[in-house]
Amino acid sequence: MAIDVVQLIEDMKEAASQVLNKDVTTLRGFSERQVKAIAQQTAFVEAGILNGGITDETRDFFLDSLEDMVLNFVRTLRGLLVVTIEKVWNAIVGVIWNAIKTATGIVLPIPDIN
Amino acid sequence: MRNDYKMSRKVLIWQSLILLFFALMLSGCATILAPSYDKALVDGLTSVNTSVMEFLAFVSGGTEKDTFSERKEKYANLIGRLDALELQANARPAPKNMVSEKVNDFLNKRGVPILDDTNAPSATAVSKISKTLVKMRDTDQKQGVTATEVQAFKNQICTYMDQALTYENFLKR
């Protein structure tokens, strides 16, 4: 049985979309929360330094921490993207390999992205 | 007739074994780019998050250094639990992958410092929460902390906790 290319493309798009639609919502929500929280903390620390609520003892700690928070936000975002790439890869490869199996009866091992 | 039956049974058994072999290969070869989900770790994070928030609510009005001894044990408890969770998060095998390397190359070419991916971002976030509480404890012991400082510590902890919990929950796939 020959592979229906049009159907295969549709199935691959559907498999990828299912993963992406769900994950993009999570990624967007996380990014919005983090950007808002870091911006608010920046303003809060600045106001605290000016009005004396933040003392000399903690001032440098809070200022350095702003940079660290941004850095780990980006690292977390990258980590989430890697998981999404993994899911999309496995979903698409699963569809392709299933099509080959259906058409030829041959069961192939799924290739590794690494 | 009897021999034919024996032969066809043998063929059937061999076919089944070959099919099973390929099925196992297929199921065992899905690409893995990130650490595995750890429910115990997520439960631990959720639990320590509640404890930290309760403690911060308790001291939200600020503290005096004279009463530090009343809080000393609580600080030790929270910091110890966080350090244990960081260890747990880092103890998982982290697959080295091409995707991370490509992202690092992309960032490097644009002058952005390469992001260290030795530890999971959640482990780093937990480590930062622990360090935040250590700084709060040391300040509390030295001079007490103001209400503004407590709020700033809390904001910082919440941001890192969001990073840790979002990442760990996202690993459930």
Walk me through the topology.
The complex is a heterodimer of chains A (114) and B (173).
Chain A: H1 5-51, H2 56-104
Helix pairs in contact in A: 1-2
Chain B: H1 2-28, H2 39-58, H3 68-91, H4 98-109, H5 121-143, H6 147-170
State the gist of this model.
The complex is a heterodimer of chains A (114) and B (173). Chain A has 114 residues and is an all-alpha fold. Chain A has helices spanning 5-51, 56-104.
3D structure, described in words:
The complex is a heterodimer of chains A (114) and B (173). Helix content of chain A is 84%, strand content 0%. Chain A has 2 helices and no strands. Chain A has helices at 5-51, 56-104. In chain A, α1 (5-51) packs antiparallel against α2 (56-104). Chain A is rod-shaped and about 75 Å long. The mean pLDDT of chain A is 92. Chain B is mostly helical and 173 residues long. Chain B folds into 2 domains: 1-30; 35-170. Chain B is elongated. At the A-B interface, α1 and α2 of A face α1, α4, α5 and α6 of B.
How many distinct domains of chain B? 2
Oligomer: heterodimer
Number of domains of chain A: 1
What is the CA-CA span between the terminal residues of chain B? 52 Å
Radius of gyration of chain A using CA atoms only: 23 Å
**Which spans of chain A of ≥5 residues are poorly predicted at pLDDT below 50?**
none
Shape category of chain B: elongated
* Major beta-sheet overview of chain A: none
What characterizes the major β-sheet of chain B? none
Count every beta strand of chain A, where a strand is a DSSP E run of 2 or more residues.
0
| Radius of gyration of chain B, in angstroms, nearest whole number | 26 Å
**H-E order of chain B:** HHHHHH
Average pLDDT level of chain B: 86
Estimate the global geometry of chain A from the Cα principal axes.
Answer: rod-shaped
Q: Per DSSP, what share of the residues of chain A sits in E-state strands of 2 or more residues? A: under 5%
Count of separate DSSP helical elements of chain B: 6
Largest interface: A-B, 49 and 51 residues
Question: How much helix is in the residues of chain B?
Answer: over 70%
Task: State the helical fraction of chain A.
Answer: over 70%
Give the topology string of chain A: H per helix, E per strand: HH
Distance between the termini of chain A: 32 Å
